[in-house]
Amino acid sequence: MARWGMTIDLDRCTACQGCVTACQAENNLPPTGMDDANKGRNYTWMEMIPFAGEGERPKAIDRLLPRPCLHCDHPPCVKVCPVGATFKSEEGIVGQIFSRCIGCRYCTTACPYTARYFNWTTPQWPEPLAKHLNPDVSLRPKGVVEKCTLCHHRLQNARDKARAENRPLRPGEYISACAEACPTDAMVFGDLDNPESEVSKLANSQRAFKLLEDLGTEPKVIYLREGN
Amino acid sequence: MRYVVSFVFIALLVVGSVAFVRGAYSLGPIVVQPIDFNHTVHLDKAGLACAECHTDAATCVHAGLPGKDICLDCHDIDDEDHSQPEKAKLFDFAERDEDIPWARVAVTRPDVYFSHRRHVSSAGLDCLECHVDQASLTRPPARARLVMSMTACIECHEKNGASEDCLACHR
C-alpha cells in the first residue's frame, strides 16, 4: 500500500505561485471577492506563507513557503471532527467529505498549519471561469470546511486507467496538480514508502525537515531546506 | 381543542408535502424523451447487448446515450416502414441530420463520483445488476428508477470486497 507524499525543495522554489494557480484551477476554487478578502476570508488550498529571512536587514531576504495540506500521519483535524467528515485514508491521504461536514470549524482550529478553510459565502465563479470547472471535483457549498485533497481524484483516474489496462499503477502516473505545474521541479510527488522513489530519497535526505515537527503530527509534505 | 386539532392537521400536511417533494426530488425530474424507445424490443427481440448502444460504458465515466448513427447502423432509412411513429421520428432526425436530443435521466449526486468504467470493465459487473429491470421497459422511464443510496453501494462493496474508503466514491 502506497503512502503518498511530496517534498518541496525551498532552494528550487522561486515563489512564482504557479502551484497556487494550478491548484485553484484543478480544484474549482472560486476567486474570493473583495469583501471577503478584506475580512481575511480568502482561501487557497495551496497558500504561500511569508516568513522573514534570517540575518540583518536589508541583507535578509524574506521568503514565501508554499503550504498545501500537509496530510499528517497523525492529523489533529481528524481527531476533533465530530461527524467523521475528515479522515485518513489507507494510503495516508487526509480526506474531506464536503457533504458530511457540518461546518463546526473544530478542524480549522485544530490544524496547526492553518490549511483548512471555511466557506463563508456561496462560491461564485465569474463567467469565463464557470465554463472551466473540473467535473472530477465537487463544488463545495457555503458553510462547509474544505482543504487540499492531494488531488485524490487524479489518483482515482490513474488507478481506473491502470485497472482498465490490467496493469499496476506506474510511478509518476499519479501526481498532484501543484507538483505537475511547478516549473522548477521544486515539488516531487510520489510514494514515500517506496525506497526507490525520488520522493522517499529526498524525504530521507539531510536537507529534509517537517513543519512544526515537535508537534508530532508527522506531515507527509516534507520540505528541503535551502543549501549554502 | 379545535385549534389544537387544526394545528396538528396543518403541521402534518406541511411535513407530508415536504417529504413528498423531497422524495420526488431525490428521484430526479420527470423527463420526456424525443423517441419512445423500447428497451425490451431491442434487448430481447433484436438480441442487442447494452454496450452496443451505450458504447462508453466500459471505457468512460458516463455510459453514453446513443447518437442517431448508432440507430442507423441497424435501421435502414430506405427499406423500413416510415409509418411507425417512433421509427418515423428517428428517420426525421436522420433526414434533418440532427442528433437525437436524449434527456439524461439518471444523475448522480454532485459530491459522488460514479464511474461506469470502474464498475463495468474493472469490476466486471453486468449492467442489469444495478439497472435491474431496464430490459423489461417498453417505454423510456420518466425519471431515474434507481435510487442509489449509500447503503446499497456499501452493501455491494462489502459483498465484493471493493474499496470502502470514502475517497473512492466521494470527491
Counting helices, strands and paired strands, the structural category of chain B is mainly alpha
Shape estimate of chain B? flat
Query: What overall geometry of chain A do the principal axes of the alpha carbons give?
Result: globular
* Extended strand count of chain A: 10
| Helix proportion range of chain B | 40-55%
Main sheet: strands, sense, barrel of chain B? none
CATH architecture assignment of chain A: 2-Layer Sandwich
What is the CATH class name of chain A? Alpha Beta
Radius of gyration of chain A: 18 Å
Total number of domains of chain A: 1
The portion of residues forming beta strands of chain A comes to 15-25%
User: With helices defined by DSSP (H or I, 4 residues minimum), what is the helix count of chain A?
Assistant: 8
**Rounded Rg of chain B:** 21 Å
Any idea how many domains of chain B? 3
Output the strand order for the largest sheet of chain A: 8-1-10-9
The average pLDDT of chain A is: 91
Give helix % range of chain A. 10-25%
Unreliable spans of chain B: none
**Can you give the mean pLDDT of chain B?**
83
What is the tally of beta strands of chain B?
Answer: 0
